[in-house]
Structure of GntR family transcriptional regulator:
Amino acid sequence: MATTSSMTRAEEIYQRLRADILNGRHEPGSRLRVEALKDSYGASSGVIREALPRLVGQGLATFAPQRGFRVVTVSPERLQELTEARVFIEIHVVRESVAAGTIEWESDLLAAHHHLARTPYFSDDGALSEHWLNAHARFHRVLLEGCPNRQLRDIATQLRDAAEVYRCWARTPAEHSHRDVAAEHQMICDHAIARDVPGVVEALSQHINITTQLLLNDYGRHEEKGKQDPGPPCGC
């Protein structure tokens, strides 16, 4: 039987692996070798083997016989499919969330938005801040938590996490300059707190689709540059 300490360690390693994939430290399509991960994370092979299937379940990794575990691959086609699925699911869930959310949900959403708004988008080295990524994930998660159907909320979170891998394509100040991300989040929050279902649906849909379009544009630039200077398309 697993001890509490081993379960806590397994959860810690899973969260670290998940964060490293979402932040581009493991490149899309790269192998997730148990022995290498064991050394890198200072964990037992058993703990690593427990974490990897959870990443597959989250859509962040894949597994195939003879090939093992790999970070999920990225492509414009897959991003467009993820975006279509996200909009379809999240629009339904946010409708339910705004309709059923309690006063406590409102308070949590306002707190999550305040944290996000006060967190710098870029770190000191000019890269997209990990603290911002975490605050951003929390805001979108809380936005949907008013929905009473946990299964739908979990599906929405899984799709958002899978799409987040693509954000490493746009970790440049240029991507941020094309939009006012803070204003987009403010609008989503305002409509949600006002219980304006059509307004929050439109704001969230535009937010997701704008992100995808900018990521696709940035991917195209990486691809064109790669033809002239071969190398990994993802600069994260």
